[in-house]
Amino acid sequence: MRTLRSALSLLAVSSFPLPSTAQQVVAPDNCVLGAVNSTTTAWRTTDGHFQLAYDSTHFTNAGVAGPVLLTRLRFRARDGEPTPGGQAFTGVSVRLGDSAVNYASMSSTFATNFGTMGPLGTANVVAGAAAGGVPNDAVIDIDLVACGAATMYDPSSGNDLLIDITFTAPTPATNLVPFSAGSATAATARARMCSAATTTATTGVLGAPPVVMIDFAGAGGYAAPAAARIERFGYGCAAPLRSFYQDWQISETFDLANTSLLMLPNSVSAPTSYTVIAGGTPPDLTKVNPTANSVADNAVVTHALGFTFNHSSGSTTSINACTDGYVWLDTAMTLADSTPAVAELLGISVAQTARIAPFWYNFHCGRNTASFANAGLHVMTDTSGGPGNAVAYVTWFKVGRSDVTPAGASVSDLQCVLHEASGIIEVRFGSMQVGAQALGITGFSPGRVGTVASFHPGPRDLSHETPFTIEADGGAHALTLGTNTMARPIVGTSITLQSYNQPAGTVLGLMCLDVQSLSPSVPIPGLLAPGCGLSLMPGSFFIHEIVVNPTGTYSAAPIAIPAAWHGQSFYAQYAACDALLANISMSNGLKLTAGLN
Fold first, then answer.
1. What does the alpha-carbon distance between residue 247 and residue 501 come to, in Å, rounded to a whole number?
2. Which of 87-96, 195-204, 547-556 is predicted with the least confidence, judged by mean pLDDT?
3. What is the structure's pLDDT at 8?
């Protein structure tokens, strides 16, 4: 039960500067980043007509208090999706004005939604390229002034904004990227769309509205709207545990490209622990076969190593390499799985065993065969070093994302290397165009050994938190910190921090917040438990909440995110204290950036 809340408030509004007067808003401004929400029924490869109704609060919440001149519309490609663009829309008709109905009551009859509208404009639009970031680039850009559709809009009137767009099919009418969208639940998005697949239809289908950035001349808004983000960092308490991982959630950027990781065993013949260090060795892209072993979307390739490879839960003379970016060290494991899950890696939710995951992801190994000769999954053993010095290579050569259709739009090189002589396991990364469309995992785990699953080591920031050692499990899951369903600190909402896996003997839990962080984390022997690191700046963090005798999952009091925090970052870490207030266990850290969708 909670017994005390600190009166200290780390995040007083006065601690952050107010946003500058500017000319942009984002609508919807409060939805989940990533490919969870997207639409193909606004801009499309056929003729089209769509209307968008956005609640006036998208402007008033951003400080727009009176009439403004709307001057530009920019529609964002689906978050995490790279695209070369190039589709040309000729003679696009666009007009803006007041909606005759509230967004929640938007009609499927186009004419019913028209209120007082501005002038009709006509524009030629070419879909631009998108790099695939989160948030992604705008690929449809309409200059309302240039096309004659600039319109006055006054959100203080209470009227919602209506955008009406009609177009004929683009050239070419292929490979148009989906568009980021708000929630299909109108009350969540505070917006709605009605769309049809012809230019003459009088009615359409209601659905989720695309995300649009609106430029205007007038007071209020944001100079450069920031995206609300949560990024995990540090490592908390990760020892003694026999597994490690980092998982990149939607909106977290993969940052191990052009690096490598080495797992150095304590014994070649019978390893019980590994020291993991960072390296800079790129994939050796000459270690490929004349023909790829697989160009499939979801498949496993069995390969006889030609030597015995010992690892911390056994030994093997054969491996099973999956096109989805991982390698089984157990010949009984033949599953190809394009939906990464930490509980599966650890053998907690399913009876799966030893696996190396350079980057477990939804890859398609044949996606780029038209752009790169011999692209695909390659598995080979190099015996040129002589007896006892064989090296096995698993190479994902020029592979693409399964959900990105055009060849060459997503290209990644990664490699797993097993050394006979030293027992070293390497994972190497080259260029990685994985975006952040879906979960991806880098790590290693013996998984379930016999009937015993591996303990949860907590996420680790592998680009900063090396070297470290993994060894036999110590009998407890690591303390971890997250949020309710990985929600983000969107201005105008609240966010709830949650800690998991309270250590045995915990009598006090401290939810700590700061505006500074430590990366890499710092161990404090004598105060923090062995293997634990502090990720906040000593002497500057505040206690958001104190809880007595926390168990299981602990949810702190919600933290309100006011508009004044827009673009500002703050940090969180959770501490679990025993009765002597010694051997304090720490969670991983969270970096939270307040912003919009």
1. 18
2. 547-556
3. 32
